[in-house]
Write a structure and sequence with these properties.
9 helices, alpha+beta, eight-stranded antiparallel barrel, about 290 residues, about 25% strand
């Protein structure tokens, strides 16, 4: 998975930023998806949905990026492109077709870049929705609310092992959350999907080589360790309820294996964002 956490260009109004991302870039990517080998492309936009933080006095388990590092402006965009492999991704970024279209189009300023591998299979992802015999495929196309935690490892911790322990806790909390409303009609059940993405085993030089020729090479943070996890909810009200109920437990768990300090060198601070979720390309359902 290729993931971009990006910020609003200073020359853009918010409405133009949204238009360039959600419309222009989305259409460009859809048009080239088959030729580029893009399996899925998912967009998240934060500014409109983040008002809920203020409206609900919601404190996230990790700070938002600009609260962690005062040299960084707020993340407004999350773009996630899934390729079959890194070679395909590399070829796409270096192709003349890409560089003349999506690669030349400015929709945001890249801040944090990840190239990752999923730690959950599709079956495990579907299981975390909280419904028996339901596949995540059935819910693609919905605009859900997404809570994303970017995780920088503590230097002395066995990160993957402790992250697995944390994931066990998250699954338990999701189960409790679902059980609280299991008597509600199906359409009102608190659908929750949990996924983890761990940084691929690449050196900084290898990652930069993949990004060469793309606008993402200039990102402030090009991450080669750690990863991120995400919880996707059927709507924003469920996200708010979940964080209010379990935010303290998540925060306590993060402190056992996640670096909470400001950014160092090429490693960004740990941070959180909330955004909407819109699936632009999904070749897995065709």
């Amino acid at each position: 998975m290729f993931s971009i956490f990006a910020t609003q260009p200073t020359q853009f109004t918010l409405s133009r930023h949204f238009h360039e991302f959600r419309h222009v870039h989305a259409i460009q990517t859809m048009d080239m998806a088959d030729a580029a080998g893009i399996v899925t492309y998912t967009q998240g936009f934060t500014p409109y949905i983040e008002n809920t933080l203020k409206d609900n006095a919601l404190s996230l388990p990790l700070p938002r990026l600009h609260e962690s590092d005062h040299d960084v402006t707020p993340v407004t965009v999350l773009a996630m492109l899934e390729f079959p492999n890194v070679d395909t991704m590399n070829g796409t970024f270096k192709s003349p077709e890409y560089q003349a279209t999506s690669g030349a189009h400015v929709f945001a300023n890249p801040e944090v870049i990840y190239i990752t591998e999923s730690l959950e299979s599709l079956a495990e992802q579907a299981r975390t929705f909280g419904l028996v015999n339901q596949s995540s495929h059935a819910y693609r196309g919905l605009s859900r609310a997404r809570l994303v935690f970017a995780l920088a490892p503590q230097s002395t911790s066995p990160f993957k092992t402790q992250w697995d322990d944390h994931a066990t806790l998250v699954h338990k909390l999701i189960g409790e959350f679902v059980c609280q409303t299991e008597a509600l009609p199906l359409s009102q059940l608190p659908m929750v999907e949990y996924q983890r993405q761990i940084s691929s085993n690449m050196t900084q030089e290898q990652l930069d080589g993949v990004l060469d020729g793309s606008p993402f090479r200039q990102a402030k943070y090009r991450v080669t360790n750690g990863g991120y996890e995400e919880l996707a909810f059927l709507h924003m009200g469920l996200l708010v309820s979940f964080v209010k109920l379990y935010g303290d437990q998540l925060r306590a768990s993060f402190t056992t294996f996640v670096d909470m300090q400001p950014a160092v060198n090429s490693t960004p601070p740990s941070f959180a964002i909330i955004c909407d979720e819109t699936r632009i390309v999904d070749s897995t359902t065709s």
